Amino acid sequence: xxxxxxxxxxxxxxxxxxxxxxxxxxxxxxxxxxxxxxxxxxxxxxxxxxxxxxxxxxxxxxxxxxxxxxxxxxxxxxxxxxxxxxxxxxxxxxxxxxxxxxxxxxxxxxxxxxxxxxxxxxxxxxxxxxxxxxxxxxxxxxxxxxxxxxxxxxxxxxxxxxxxxxxxxxxxxxxxxxxxxxxxxxxxxxxxxxxxxxxxxxxxxxxxxxxxxxxxxxxxxxxxxxxxxxxxxxxxxxxxxxxxxxxxxxxxxxxxxxxxxxxxxxxxxxxxxxxxxxxxxxxxxxxxxxxxxxxxxxxxxxxxxxxxxxxx
DNA sequence: AAGTCTCGCAACCGCACATAC
DNA sequence: TGTATGTGCGGTTGCGAGACT
Length: 312
Description:
Structural class: mainly alpha
Largest sheet: 2 strands, antiparallel
Pfam family, one: Myb_DNA-binding
Helix content: 40-55%
Subcellular location: Nucleus
Order of helices and strands: HHHHHHHEEHHHHHH
Keywords: DNA-binding, Nucleus
Domain Myb-like: 9-61, 62-112
Strand content: under 5%
Mean pLDDT: 54
Distance between the termini: 38 Å
Strand order of the largest sheet: 1-2
Oligomer: single chain
CATH topology of the domain at 72-164: Arc Repressor Mutant, subunit A
Domain HTH myb-type: 9-65, 66-116
Number of helices: 13
CATH superfamily of the domain at 72-164: Homeodomain-like
């Protein structure tokens, strides 16, 4: 017996959300909090299915969502994490609390994947390599940093880069941003809504406690791209608290799915709060590695980049 | 100026997983 | 134990805007 649809399709509205629908949804969530999505359409009168309401909230209306340009540092983190975790967008998004998995997924598919592919073909020109493409592209292997968008070296040897992208929010996006902004105060004053907590430095890394690993750990991570996405190697070295378990046979890796009690999105957040109530818990090795400007912000080492991009 | 093409993003779809009964 | 239900996730699609011819 197949799983029934999440909602009766008849009379369900599809397509883009209107500002009025957004306001209705936000007002309801302000009053009742996120969750119990099944009841949202009936209680609000929205002609949307529950999944659509949840998606609209988590991907667009949820407070704290950052839209627009991805910074070079964010790009670097995404590249690293994608090489490390594969297409586990929710897990990757847990490291970028202001970005949604959908945003990251879209950005990867439309920008980063393309650029990494070009980068790889520039480094490993095959007989069939599209030479014209390489020549015409602004990508330059000899440059100090990857050309993610229009990256300009600010000089001074600092390694800082400026990113000039032409991303722009639509006027409608602006209106929903305003809706989100209206919610900021509510989020601050209301009891913690675990699934939507943002800005915490604790994240999925809390699940894979990699603190206190040495250079060999880094070596494992860096060579990850050549291991057919088998996380076992990495996790073998982690402590017993590690909950990322990938048998290398496609078994679900995402720690969120192991922590769905209470129907919380991103349960990784605050997952170790019982151990340490400090608002700024020590960064795990992985987090330190990811947040390290020299590693994630500019990707200086071309050989390292080769390994990361070898998954393509 | 008009038609066509390309690209980016919001939203949808189907499946997987957890839980309640 | 099996079924129903709720939710999360990743892949894909379709539309609109801008670029191009």
